[in-house]
């Protein structure tokens, strides 16, 4: 479990002296240099055309679902920088440029790494005392450890706090079913990535056998085509989107629209160490 995240920071300068900042999940300097020709000289307000030109890089002309994660990730960072430029140029927050404010307050989950059950329970109590109503807790070590963590946290915080657990794709479908069934009596709000969501059939198999909602936050929801497949196969109850990994503001909004049309809940992913440029939809 990480306590920090490795990022590439993107700087885009304009002729008017405005600098936009973005961030990319992994080292991306070579990729960015490779597509620089498609950005220099463009109007940053034409962000949709710029994003699609980048995403079509390498003769992928139509189906964004065929793009590898590193390219979408890079597009996400460039998108952030372009929207940062637009926000600075207009002196407006980005939410006013993409449709306006939907809610005045966005609830966040407290994030906790994997650790012994008693330590997770102690930290959970402190989080609740600090005002958090929902927790995201890392597990995925082994069934005995993970069930003990769920039990300890629930007993520590009581029945009215939302506790969700992230397995990081650590189980096979059979292991996930067996383990989640043991967790059900402790009423977790959701289990994230019980199996590697690149295997959507495995996600669907787990979901068909357990009563705890499943959240996809991995390869299965990187593209709108992947989310569509989650819907078709009944493989998840929600998706956790990421403005880097989903390819920028506009593509993330498209992914959220597909999820909404398919009856899935959508939330937004963050990470430790980020600039915080674009974490909330």
TrEMBL record:
Gene Ontology BP terms: amino acid catabolic process
Q: Which CDD domains match?
A: MR_like (cd03316)
Q: Which SUPFAM superfamilies match?
A: Enolase C-terminal domain-like, Enolase N-terminal domain-like
Pfam families of this UniProt entry? MR_MLE_C, MR_MLE_N
What Gene3D superfamilies does UniProt report for this protein, alphabetically? Enolase-like C-terminal domain, Enolase-like, N-terminal domain
Q: Tell me which InterPro entries the record gives.
A: DgoD-like, Enolase-like_C_sf, Enolase-like_N, Enolase_C-like, Mandel_Rmase/mucon_lact_enz_CS, Mandelate_racemase_C, Mandelate_racemase_N_dom
Q: Which residues form the Mandelate racemase/muconate lactonizing enzyme C-terminal domain?
A: 118-213
Q: What is this protein called?
A: Mandelate racemase/muconate lactonizing enzyme C-terminal domain-containing protein
